[in-house]
Automatic annotation (TrEMBL):
InterPro entries (UniProt xref): aa-tRNA-synth_I_cd-bd, aa-tRNA-synth_I_codon-bd_sub2, aa-tRNA-synth_I_CS, aa_tRNA-synth_I_cd-bd_sf, Glu-tRNA-ligase_bac/mito, Glu/Gln-tRNA-synth, Glu/Gln-tRNA-synth_Ib_cat-dom, GluQ/Sye
MF terms in GO: ATP binding; glutamate-tRNA ligase activity; tRNA binding; zinc ion binding
Pfam families, A to Z: Anticodon_2, tRNA-synt_1c
Family: Belongs to the class-I aminoacyl-tRNA synthetase family. Glutamate--tRNA ligase type 1 subfamily.
Cell location: Cytoplasm
Segments carrying motif 'HIGH' region: 9-19
Function: Catalyzes the attachment of glutamate to tRNA(Glu) in a two-step reaction: glutamate is first activated by ATP to form Glu-AMP and then transferred to the acceptor end of tRNA(Glu).
Protein name: Glutamate--tRNA ligase
Reactions it catalyzes: tRNA(Glu) + L-glutamate + ATP = L-glutamyl-tRNA(Glu) + AMP + diphosphate
Organism in which the protein naturally occurs: Hydrogenophilus thermoluteolus
One Gene Ontology biological process: glutamyl-tRNA aminoacylation
All copies of domain Glutamyl/glutaminyl-tRNA synthetase class Ib catalytic, residue ranges: 3-309
Amino acid sequence: MSVRTRFAPSPTGYLHLGGARTALFNWAYARHHKGQFILRIEDTDRERSTPQAVQAILDGIHWLGLDYDEGPFYQTQRMDRYREVIQRLLNEGKAYYCYATPEELEAMREAQRAQGLKPKYDGRWRPEPGKVLPPPPDGVPPVVRFKAPTSGKVGWHDLVKGWIEFDNSELDDFVIARADGTPTYNFCVVVDDWDMAITHVIRGDDHVNNTPRQIHLYHALGATLPHFAHLSMILGPDGQKLSKRHGAVSVMQYHADGYLPEAMVNYLARLGWSHGDDELFTREQLVAWFDLDHITPSAARFDFDKLRWVNAHYIKETPIARLASEVAERLARRGVDPEHGPQLETVVALYRDRADTLEVLTDLVLPFYQPVHPPAELVAAQVDDLARTVLRDFRARLETLPETDWTPETIAAAMKATLAACGVKMPKLGIPLRVVLLGTKQSPAIDQVVAVLGKRETLARLDRLV
């Protein structure tokens, strides 16, 4: 049996972390078993589904590198198929028309609540042997309800949570087609998964309560049940439901914030799944190792610090040319042209080990490509009269260096000569020099910074403040 998984988001918003992890687990499981990964867009909620949300989902899937083998399929393009299956269930007596009005249903629920009962449909329009139904009322468009079993139990072995079971008496005859004829979620999902031969339904555990209803539909259609695996929630660091303040934003926001897709894939994979103590692994290793046996049934906690640590690792591992390309795009968005300055790859190589996001890396290289205006209080604190004397001496030595001999080694030699001539320690030269050249007290080795900045720009910046 070829494994076939699917990711089936509803385009009513962006692709968030939970959805991205679900997509990743489906993709990884299919790839591990050399099966197929299908993308389906569940867009039957016409009021809330938007083309912009569809595009946001596609963008997120593409950015994460979750290539799909089939799709995207759209439920709105499958309405004829849904109507065909609904009619079959009606013809076979496995579904029926219900003419109860919204007002009648609400009154029914209120009466049940008043008796301390769980509100559910009471089967008033359900056909039964010997039961006489009233004539359909005029002007009331009916819904179609599925005729669910009323006794016994329904259960399944969940590949994450183990055995799960429901009493059929707790369920009711749920609606499979609304009064306007549009099919409902639980119905469409079953028909889609059946038609697309999905073997493993891997999804969030907010769908656990839908599963018994869907199992009944599978049985009514004579379809083979897929395996179910329900993933626990992702919580914030404080153990509360993930919210925007925790990072529950669009996956593409992480792209904008400077995270690499490799880092997001690595980090998302570890949210609820593990391979021993391995924290860092390649996409290829994930595919080789991924299984459902090592998914924890308990909720995972999102940790920004851990994500940034993982991202810093991938920044260090990413080829300089690609990092420079990423930084160039971010500089351009800030209106900065990296052509007017030192070679960008050289500057990126100088700073890559100090950055945990591409945005931080862009911030670090920015002073090499635009005028620097150190804060007055920083200048006052670090560039005193003695520092100016030291800097002037250093500047004079730099001026004598030919550009053909402008290297970290010759610059370091000039620094040593200045320190000896002025009788000061390195901080009295290094810190003021960083403030004047970059507007900060910290940087990589200052001889390398001066070498990359170039002779003309270094002297010009010293002249402006010294």
